[in-house]
């Protein structure tokens, strides 16, 4: 059993902390939301009065916060978490944030720190089936795997500080572009009088195959579990995809990488988001593309 501090008990962090409790760890939680904190206590967790208190005396301290500024502030700024931890503590940030902030916080924390963003969404958080993409030192990674495996099924050590965030940004940029081109192909098929099922049957066994097509098909029918079959309820919300694509473009600009399709994917998802679709699954962008084709 480990003593774990957990800060950020929202849609993802709440169920992740509950899975640590189920695995027999002692989890002291903190969140600005009293409702989130009450749910953590109801699941058997201890409540802290501040982020620093949650970090005090813990073997591992996990954050699951909205964005880079929250993470910097919690660890190094007003939250003062890094200074509150024991020198032997291992710090783990599971939030999805920009690579530069992840490296800055890890460099300034004065303790071994891992960036460990996840994929798998709230269902993965509930079911402890998340994938963790981890950046940071080998020994901290080795020590943290037992903690991460209580919350996820697949854990990949991607390299040094920031490598987990880099992997997440690259993966989601590929996913977004794959989804858009898959949706475009279905819209073209509709115009050409080709059925959805016929395109699926061919492309799923041909070179057009992708996860966006075979696991997350943006039209109803061919993949019964995809959000298209439930009116595009997420799933993976457009607001989160737009956020991740913004992080990928920030990283590309900083690193001097040329990513024209990633930039176009961001522009299209921002347009879909600004039309009021933040809570719609990201595969719902096919509706916007169909509308453009109808003009
Ligand atoms: P959320 O908004 O539900 O939860 C964030 C929690 O952090 C909230 O409860 C908020 O009160 C708390 N918080 C904010 N600032 C705080 C502070 N200073 N101290 C203590 N608590 C604070 O968000 P979420 O959906 O749980 O997402 C968390 C992170 O996980 C984000 O970076 C997101 O991009 C990433 N993520 C989310 C999903 C998803 O499907 N929701 C999937 C993968 C990754």
Description:
With 295 residues, the protein is of the alpha/beta class. It folds into two domains: 3-160, 3-Layer(aba) Sandwich (Rossmann fold), CATH 3.40.50.720; 166-292, Orthogonal Bundle (N-(1-d-carboxylethyl)-l-norvaline Dehydrogenase, domain 2), CATH 1.10.1040. It is 51% helix and 13% strand. It has 14 helices and nine strands. It has helices at residues 13-22, 34-42, 51-55, 68-75, 81-84, 99-108, 121-127, 138-148, 163-192, 196-203, 211-214, 238-255, 260-277, 285-293; strands at 3-7, 26-30, 46-47, 60-63, 90-93, 113-115, 118-119, 130-135, 152-159. Strands 3-2-1-4-5-6 form a six-stranded parallel β-sheet, with helices on both faces. The chain has a three-stranded mixed β-sheet with strand order 7-8-9. The radius of gyration is 20 Å and the shape is elongated. The termini are far apart. Residues 7-13, 30-33, 36, 51, 64-66, 70, 74, 79, 95-96, 118-119, 121-122, 240, 243 line the site of nicotinamide-adenine-dinucleotide. Nicotinamide-adenine-dinucleotide binds at residues 7-13, 30-33, 36, 51, 64-66, 70, 74, 79, 95-96, 118-119, 121-122, 240, 243.
Spatial shape: elongated
Percent strand equals 5-15%
Task: Output the helix-strand order.
Answer: EHEHEHEHHEHEEHEHEHHHHHH
CATH topology heading of the largest domain: Rossmann fold
Output the structural class.
alpha/beta
The end-to-end span amounts to 61 Å
CATH homologous superfamily placement of the largest domain? NAD(P)-binding Rossmann-like Domain
Low-confidence parts: none
DSSP strand tally: 9
- What count of structural domains? 2
State the helical fraction: 40-55%
Taking all Cα atoms into account, the compactness measure Rg is 20 Å
Sheet with most strands: strand arrangement: 3-2-1-4-5-6
Q: Biggest β-sheet, characterized?
A: 6 strands, parallel
């Amino acid at each position: 059993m480990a003593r774990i501090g957990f800060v950020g008990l929202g849609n993802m962090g709440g169920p992740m902390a509950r899975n640590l409790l189920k695995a027999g760890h002692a989890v002291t939680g903190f969140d600005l939301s009293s409702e989130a904190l009450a749910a953590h206590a109801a699941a058997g967790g201890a409540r802290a009065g501040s982020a620093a208190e949650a970090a005090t005396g813990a073997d591992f301290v996990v954050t699951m916060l909205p964005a880079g500024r929250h993470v910097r502030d919690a660890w190094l700024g007003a939250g003062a978490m890094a200074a509150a931890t024991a020198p032997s503590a291992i710090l783990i940030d599971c939030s999805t944030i920009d690579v530069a902030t992840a490296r800055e916080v890890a460099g300034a924390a004065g303790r071994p720190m891992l960036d460990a963003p996840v994929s798998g969404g709230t269902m993965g958080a509930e079911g402890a089936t998340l994938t963790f993409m981890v950046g940071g030192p080998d020994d901290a990674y080795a020590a943290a795997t037992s903690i991460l495996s209580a919350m996820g099924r697949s854990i990949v050590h991607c390299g040094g500080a920031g490598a987990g965030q880099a992997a997440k940004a690259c993966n989601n940029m590929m996913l977004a572009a794959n989804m858009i081109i898959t949706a475009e192909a279905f819209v073209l098929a509709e115009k050409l009088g080709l059925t959805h099922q016929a395109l699926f049957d061919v492309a799923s066994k041909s070179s057009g195959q992708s996860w966006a097509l075979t696991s997350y098909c943006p039209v109803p029918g061919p993949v019964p579990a995809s959000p298209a079959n439930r009116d595009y309820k997420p799933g993976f919300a457009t607001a989160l995809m737009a956020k991740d694509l913004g992080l990928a473009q920030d990283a590309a600009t900083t690193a001097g990488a040329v990513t024209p399709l990633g930039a176009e994917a961001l522009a299209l998802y921002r347009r879909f988001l600004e039309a009021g679709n933040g809570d719609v699954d990201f595969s719902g962008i096919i509706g916007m593309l169909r509308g453009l084709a109808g003009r």
